[in-house]
User: Fold this.
Amino acid sequence: MVDLQKSFVQNMYSVEGKVALVTGATGALGKVGAKAYGYAGAKVFLTGRNAGKLQELVDEFKAEGIECDFFAADPAKEEDVQALIKAVVAKYGRIDILFIAHGFNKPQNILEQSVADWSYIMDADCKSVYIVMKYVSMQMVEQLGGAENVPSGQGGKIVVVTSQRSKRGMAGYTGYCTSKGGADMMIASAACDLSAKYGINVNAICPTVFRSELTEWMFDPESAVYQNFMKREPIGRLAEPSDFVGYVIFLSSNASNYITGAACDCSGGYLVC
Ligand SMILES: NC(=O)c1ccc[n+]([C@@H]2O[C@H](COP(=O)([O-])OP(=O)(O)OC[C@H]3O[C@@H](n4cnc5c(N)ncnc54)[C@H](OP(=O)(O)O)[C@@H]3O)[C@@H](O)[C@H]2O)c1
Assistant:
């Protein structure tokens, strides 16, 4: 017999009252995700490495009635991340949602790139994702008070922004593609560690190009980059921030309780043709 609760359907996208920790909150996608959580009634804790930018963001969010706070931390430094989690728990008592949206790229041909530059990208896009995910998972498990076999989604939600470049190589991208591909495998493996026992869903969103200050130039219909994209964009345009938030809320709410270890396409169909 099908047992579908009306109240479940009516509330399945709700993140109201949840505590969401957002890394890379000062970046384009981090800010959009954080604002989406705030508009949806979550308490939002913002982090990045630049305290001044975070303070500006908190002021902007509070002016819109969003409950939020910040703590500056480098996600690639273990001691920073431990201090960050203490700060979130001191402020809001728990972490329900982790949204990882920090990242960095410096395209360089492998023949010219230094090992130090490659390692920096790997730290910014892969190692730091591991460190944040590890310590937040430990906090989420602690919140369960020893319970095991927790229903999926009830232990927490982890959402990582990787990239369509996790699935395709590109000239100058031996650092970026490798780190993003590593992050996609990381969420798959973390899902195996965390989902059945602790009810924590771990997923990734893989975008192509979203409008931001840095990507605005790619939206010029006259540019070769835009025209090349359009040869492989079934949806016929590049992405706007509003195209992103559906996934953010979906993967952070009960609507996605049966989805874990998934690297979700958010590309307008870029990989299908
Ligand atoms: N926008 C797109 O079209 C697009 C497409 C595919 C994938 N992505 C991925 O989505 C994520 C967010 O992209 P975005 O467009 O929002 O980027 P963005 O606007 O450049 O913001 C990047 C964020 O990451 C932080 N950051 C920069 N360098 C860092 C480093 N070395 N270590 C740790 N944090 C660092 C920045 O804050 P602080 O410098 O203050 O720490 C900032 O908050 C990234 O992982 C990116 O690779 C974006």
User: Anything to note?
Assistant: Residues 24, 26-30, 48-50, 53, 75-76, 101-104, 124, 128, 161, 163, 207, 209-210, 212, 214-215 surround NAP (CB under 6 Å). The chain has a mean pLDDT of 96. The chain is about 45% helix and 15% strand.
